[in-house]
Design a protein that fits this description.
The chain is an all-alpha fold. The chain is 75% helix and 0% strand. It contains three helices and no strands. The protein is elongated and about 125 Å long. The model has no long low-confidence stretch (mean pLDDT 86).
Length: 113
């Protein structure tokens, strides 16, 4: 009787081990499919991003902006008669502080003495 229990236990343990290995294999296969699907979706999204970048660069190119401004907004380049040139601003000297004026004045008085 004891021999039958040992044999039954061994068969049950082997069956459970076999089921665990099969379950693990199924889960690994399922995970592999999910990873591959995510990889495909990632590649599709990378392609869409690249296409959108090209569209953005095309839309922001100077030629395209000029064409859009002309067709949609009725804008055109200004002619030479429409331009006005302003006098160049005179470069400003840095504002002198009271201390810098005093130092300069003191230095000049020392040099002239």
């Amino acid at each position: 009787m004891d021999l039958i229990r040992k044999r039954t236990f061994k068969i049950a343990a082997a069956s459970l081990l076999g089921l665990a290995l099969v379950w693990q294999h199924i889960q690994a296969t399922r995970l592999g499919y999910q990873v591959e699907q995510a990889r495909r979706e990632g590649n599709i999204l990378k392609g869409r991003i690249a296409a959108l970048r090209i569209d953005l660069e095309t839309d922001l190119s100077p030629a395209q902006l000029a064409q859009t401004a002309k067709s949609r907004l009725g804008m055109f380049p200004a002619g030479p008669e429409a331009l006005r040139f302003l006098d160049r601003p005179v470069p400003r000297t840095p504002a002198r502080t009271l201390l810098s004026r005093w130092i300069t004045k003191s230095w000049r008085s020392l040099l002239h003495t």
